[in-house]
Amino acid sequence: xxxxxxxxxxxxxxxxxxxxxxxxxxxxxxxxxxxxxxxxxxxxxxxxxxxxxxxxxxxxxxxxxxxxxxxxxxxxxxxxxxxxxxxxxxxxxxxxxxxxxxxxxxxxxxxxxxxxxxxxxxxxxxxxxxxxxxxxxxxxxxxxxxxxxxxxxxxxxxxxxxxxxxxxxxxxxxxxxxxxxxxxxxxxxxxxxxxxxxxxxxxxxxxxxxxxxxxxxxxxxxxxxxxxxxxxxxxxxxxxxxxxxxxxxxxxxxxxxxxxxxxxxxxxxxxxxxxxxxxxxxxxxxxxxxxxxxxxxxxxxxxxxxxxxxxxxxxxxxxxxxxxxxxxxxxxxxxxxxxxxxxxxxxxxxxxxxxxxxxxxxxxxxxxxxxxxxxxxxxxxxxxxxxxxxxxxxxxxxxxxxxxxxxxxxxxxxxxxxxxxxxxxxxxxxxxxxxxxxxxxxxxxxxxxxxxxxxxxxxxxxxxxxxxxxxxxxxxxxxxxxxxxx
Length: 486
Hints:
This protein has 486 residues and is an alpha/beta fold. It has 13 helices and 28 strands.
């Protein structure tokens, strides 16, 4: 319980944490949730400022997450969103520590990965809720004096009052309960000896209300986890998630579609790229049967995916309305990405219309590829963003499809597409290139087009194609001389 009114609880009745709530963190993770989701942390995980947090012996990925904690001031049960903030006594700084090595053990519940003693430092001071605007708070975190996180509650996906109202639908919130409200981008791994500080303040309000700095020192554990429980398990995917990037984790850089590489890709046609893929045994990487809204416009980008399943009345009632997978997919697009929609080749309804296409364009997406229909085709074609599609159709989504999931492997126009694949399109069609093949395929395509330029010059001079196309040894020697002189 809260004890003296207006203080940070030393042992809350409940600690409830939100998975994703800051847009910067959601975009970093590559998914924007339609509604908040939660997990519980034991009250024994709560610690005071100035203490230590132990990285369990045998683990390597202890990560911090600076957060704003809400301290409940009065009982809340089935309160409305407009009344949610009135149930909060105050806010303070929090640090949601977790061990990624143990995520596999209780995935979803996070009990062992985030529930250890000392894994929820709070404090040091409580800012009274009545004195602040919940949308005007600032959160900052430092590691060894370096600022690593900074964001404001103006960017929250789910406002604080909504969290209180949502939780109170099924759970009675009592005085002294704590809600951890999510972390922004910048959370990462810390090592023994590191000092992590978190502060919540109201930078633009009179009086400069602040929680003070919540200070925690990381120490190395000495007692190994015994084999009668789950053992630490780490792979590079967990390292990248914990650190925030492959570079930060000290791993080989992830594939990046750089401006230089895009320029090289754009220097060759999809027909040439297709030939190079075929030489490497890839014969089913073309997205077939589509037309483009922007003839003459080149498409290059990394794939994000959206999958539709066949229409069924009960499924559409459950998953078709509200902030469904289709809307989530368009909202999550980042600059340079291509949304690939798996619609099973069903042309009898629209899979994208002018509003969502405009949303993709304003998000900076490189293009849209769907093997289904397009509504409002004239309006979509008037946009700058290229959309490859199977035809026009006026019907709305619910006629043939249910939007099902995002960022999974999909089938589009006969090709398998995975998130992160490189999508290349022009007037000849659309290709899917696995990232690991891109450099080799593009280099081969550039060389192939050089050879074809040479061959075309010889044909223009009156040479026959026998032995020239493809080149025999004599012509290869002449080509080498031609290239050396260019």
